[in-house]
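Notes to self, DUF4123 domain-containing protein:
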Amino acid sequence: MLLKKPKIELSGDIEKIDAITEQLCEFAKPYQSRCIVILDPFISALEDDIIGSLYKEFKITQVKIKHPSVLAWQRPLLLTLNLKNNYERDVLRYTINQALTELNPENLYKNSTRHYSGWIFTHTKVEKISEDFSCLSLQNMYQSKQLLRFYDPAVLPQLLTILNPKLQIKLLGHIEIWTLLDGNGDLFYRHNDEPGMVYTGQLGITKQLEQELNCIGINNQFLKKYRKNHPLEKIDECESLNKIKPCLLRLVSRGFTDKALLVEWAKLAYKWGEDFDLHPYVQNKIQNMKTRFDFTDLLNEMINSDWQIKLNQ
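result:
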């Protein structure tokens, strides 16, 4: 007896959903119309009847990440779709709809969840891709082994910008095309120039690179709040990262690593420019500061719009 499939209903911009669907279907053609959807329940459980029904058809492969901060239910899932099948193509449309819904600035600010994380294309078996994800997610950092959630759509594009070309290829591994929705809801895609190169799982992350990786998290925290207050503004996350990163690294080099302070510092860099902290007035103020609490008066002063006058002096 065949199980009845859940009805798929879309609530978003149908024209945009269909345009993205068509592009993904084109990407899928050289791969026998196979598409692998990345699902990420890390922040909250993925309670979805349509996705749940596909477990019973053995369409979903769990990435077995062995890290104490990742419980079994928080592990990424890889959903394999055959886009020649009408229902599975509708499932693809559904995942795009859900991804766009989650990107609503108000929703993202409240929930921070992006369950529907991307769509990848490869000739490699999904089990091997799962193994690659598992290996890559645990990185030997400067002082300890840490979780690298590279598959998070808020992380991957920015991560690619700070890795050199060799490490970019290594990160993509056996994946030949990686697609996702950026924070504006536009389709981002990256082609891998050398899929299937020798793969070890370790990126060789130095102390400097680890500090740059931390800037991605600060950038995302800043942008989450910024987008809530400016929902119609288009923002390139990678450009934002490049703008805030220099002053963040300079502040970290002084021993200030408090995330709340760094987010406020990022806000000022986005507003006043990447080198605002090199102004003699700022340099003079921060040279004797010991804790994040010493920054309160300076932060309040620099939020004021007439700070531009002082910057130009």
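- The first helix runs from residue 14 to 28.
- DSSP finds 13 helices and eight strands in the chain.
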